[in-house]
Amino acid sequence: MTYRAGISATQLPYRPEGQTLYDRAISWGFSLPVPSATPLEAASMNLAFTYGQRGNTDINLANPNGNVREDYVRVQVGLTLNNRWFIKRRIE
Questions:
Q1: Extended beta strands in 1-92, E state
Q2: CA nearest to 56, candidates 71, 36, 37, 74
Q3: Does residue 46 carry a pLDDT above 80?
Q4: What Å distances lie between residue 64 and 10, 23, 47, CA to CA?
Q5: Which of 47, 50, 52, 69 has its CA at a distance of 20 to 30 angstroms from the CA of residue 6?
Q6: Residue range 26-46: mean pLDDT, rounded
Q7: Is the pLDDT of residue 68 over 90?
Q8: Does residue 16 surpass a pLDDT of 90?
Q9: Is 66 helix (H, G, I), strand (E, B) or coil?
Q10: pLDDT over 80 at 38, yes or no
Q11: Rounded to an integer, what distance in angstroms lies between the CA atom of residue 34 and that of residue 17?
């Protein structure tokens, strides 16, 4: 089993009334090995979760009502397949 975690922060391209909006998120996940015939054909099932906030609610003189901020949750499921195709062949 392999664990993963991360954080991200990015500036959004939208500028309502000249204000900068941001997208901040934290993510975590893990991968489970899937039983296979040989180690060369190993596969894994990946599951990841992300929680983030997009936008802001800053109040200033230009925008007395503030902006919109949304919270989001993302769930990702993946399958990683390894096969003999990706192994360098030796010619004897």
A1: 2-11, 22-34, 43-55, 69-81
A2: 71
A3: yes
A4: 24, 21, 41
A5: 69
A6: 84
A7: no
A8: no
A9: coil
A10: no
A11: 51
Give CA separation, 42 vs 29, 58, 72, 74, in Å: 19, 49, 33, 27
Given a cut of 70, is residue 15 above it in pLDDT? yes
Terminal alpha carbon distance of the chain: 37
CB 23 within 8 A of CB 52: yes
- SS3 category, 72: strand
Query: Given this model, what pLDDT does residue 69 score?
Result: 83
29 φ, ψ (degrees, to nearest 5): -175, 180
pLDDT computed for residue 25 by the predictor: 96
Amino acid code (one letter) for 3: Y
Q: In whole angstroms, how far apart are CA 33 and each of 6, 30, 37, 84?
A: 21, 10, 12, 17
Q: What is the pLDDT of residue 14?
A: 81
